[in-house]
Amino acid sequence: MFRVDPKTVTRWAKAGRLTAIKTLGGHRRYREAEVRAHLNGGGQS
């Protein structure tokens, strides 16, 4: 969806750059607006 590897998004969450919401099944969900803001606002290293 964002042309970013899912593992990259997971790393961003572990680094505290994104907020992850964990489901009961153990999957992580991310707010679309937060991911888009991160992509548009830079912050990538």
From TrEMBL:
Q: Specify the domain of life of the species encoding this protein.
A: Bacteria
Give every Helix-turn-helix domain span.
1-41
Q: Which Gene3D superfamilies match?
A: 1.10.1660.10
The protein's name is BldC family transcriptional regulator
- Organism (species): Phytoactinopolyspora alkaliphila
